[in-house]
Amino acid sequence: MQAGKVAVFRKEHFNAAHRLHNPEWDDATNTKVFGKCANPHYHGHNYEVEVKVTGQLDPKTGYVIDMKVLSDLLAKEVIERFDHRNLNLDVPEFKNLNPTAENIAIVIFNLLRPQINSNLSLLIRLYETERNFVEYAG
Amino acid sequence: MVVYLTRKEHFNAAHKLYNPSWSKEKNQEVFGKCANENWHGHNFDLFVSIKGSPDPDTGFLFDVKKLSMIIKEHITEVLDHKNLNVDVPFMAGKICSTENLVYEIWHQLLPHIPTTVTLHCVKLCETPRIFVEYYGE
What we know:
The complex is a heterodimer of chains A (about 140) and B (about 140).
Chain A: E1 6-18, H1 27-34, E2 43-55, H2 67-82, E3 85-86, H3 87-90, H4 101-112, E4 121-127, E5 133-136
Parallel strand pairs in A: 1-3
Antiparallel strand pairs in A: 1-2, 2-4, 4-5
Chain B: E1 3-15, H1 24-31, E2 40-52, H2 64-79, E3 82-83, H3 98-109, E4 118-127, E5 130-134
Parallel strand pairs in B: 1-3
Antiparallel strand pairs in B: 1-2, 2-4, 4-5
């Protein structure tokens, strides 16, 4: 009997600086909309990212996906790009994109999606702090 | 009877570990990724512990709401959503390690702790896995 779909999760973290601002707005409008998050000298977070991959088990391995493969993929595509970086200054994906938690989750999804089998569904959950987190599933 | 009371607060900040008297290469060698010139950041958790004997009339060591206000006024409002290397006067000229930061936080708080209690410990968590403590020694 074929089992239903199983979801597997991998959790990683990265520590990064960022600021929130819209370059088309003046400083007063950016501060009004983004508050303290608009500090032009940046602030930072310990981000936690959870990657959820859902699908049928491979009958030969009993895996949805090899967790070592998923871990290495996350390390290469996400952690190496973002960890101990300034998201606004050091990460090309945010050159013209405001690095809100929402946009970071979308960027992470788009980096991983092409490299995960299309018959597996993917969801990214990103914690900016313990109390604020976002999810994106494409 | 000695009781210890701890209040937890948090702040989100950018920093880098960088010794300005060293070359860029030496900073990279010693501090690794933490020396990124464009900074990185953390959600810091701060635990401030005081000790003493509870007041017989209130059962309190100290009103923890007042302790929270002291910490917020002198620490979290100064540090939250800031760049520790650039925005914080009491870190000017100092290497922005968690060790140095916890020492400075202690000394910023100490004058505002009432004389009925003793400041016992300041614990600063840079990440869930890395934290420092200072006991005023």
